[in-house]
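Question (not urgent): is this output format expected?
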Amino acid sequence: MKTYKRIVAVMFVLALILPAMSVGAQGVRSAIFTLPPLLPNPVAVGGEIVFDLDLSIANIEPGLSGVDIYLEYDGTKVAFAEVLPDFFGASSVRVNELVTCPDGDGTCVHLVLAGTPQVTKESMLARLSFKAMAKGDACFSVAKSELVDANGFQVEHTLPAQQCVVIDDPDPNKMTGMVLKQGAPANPNPGGGTLSCSSVTVNGVSFITDNTGNFIVNDMPLPAGTYALRAIYPGYLASEKTITITAGSVSLIDVGTTTLRGGDVNSDSQINILDVGLITGKFGQTGLAVGSVFSDCSVTDEPADINDDGQINISDLAITAGNWSASTTVWP
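Got this back:
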C-alpha cells in the first residue's frame, strides 16, 4: 500500500512538473522591432543616412510569415533613396512604395514583406537609405505595423522608439599655409619688421599673413575645384601655386610654406640692374616705415628696404645681388 501511495505521489509531482517543463522548453513568444541610433549624427546637407530596421522574433508558431509596416519621415528634410528587404530571404514577396502615412500627415515608406515562415530569428528586416536635403531635425518612426503568422493571425509586437538625426551645413573646407620672407626679420632689426602683412590671394580673394607668416582661409567657400594662389610683399618676387581640391577631401588643406625671394624693388617680377640702381640710390637711409609692424598692415613699406628693418644698407644689396636674374617663383 505504501508503495502504491509513493507511485501516486510521484505521478502527481510529474504531472505538475512536465507541463511547466514543456512551456519552459517552448519559450516565450515575442516579436520586437529595433531602430538603432542614427549615425553619423549630425549629417551634412547632401549626405546619406543609412540605417537598418531590425526584427527579432522568438517562438512564433507556426512561424511569422508576413510584415506590413509604415515608416514615417519628414519629406522636407530627407529624400527616400532605397530599401533593401532581407528578413524572409531571396524568395520573399517584396513591395515598397512612398505613400501618405495612415494618419494622413507626413510621408511614409510602405513596406510589405511575406515569405517562408520564421519561428525564431533576429535579422535586418530592411535597410533604408535617405539623402539629407535641408537643415533641421530629421526623425524616423513606425507609424503603423502589422505582423501575421503562417495562419494569417495577428502577432503582437513591440515598436521601436523614434530616432532623429541633425542635418546641418557641411563644414567648409579651410586652407592654411605659411609665407616667409628672405632675410626677414633682420638680425639686428631696429625697424621691428615681422613676417606679417604678406598678401596671399586665392582665386583673386586676398588674405594677410600673421606675425609668424601663417594665413588661413576659413570664410571663403572652397568647394571642389582648382585654386590659384599668389603671395606678394613689397620688395619681393611673387610666389605662385595652383592646387586642386577634390570632392570628399580633408576639410583642412595645408598648402605648405613658401619663402619670397627679395630684390624686386620695382615690382616688375624680375631682379636686375634696375633694382640694384634703386637700392644704391637710397643707400644709407634709416628710420623708414615698416608696414609689418602695424596690425592692420595699412602702412606701405619702402620696397628698397628688402629685409624690412627700417634702413637701406648692405644687407638689402646683398639679398638682391644673390637673386640676380630671378623671376616669379613657384610655391613648393
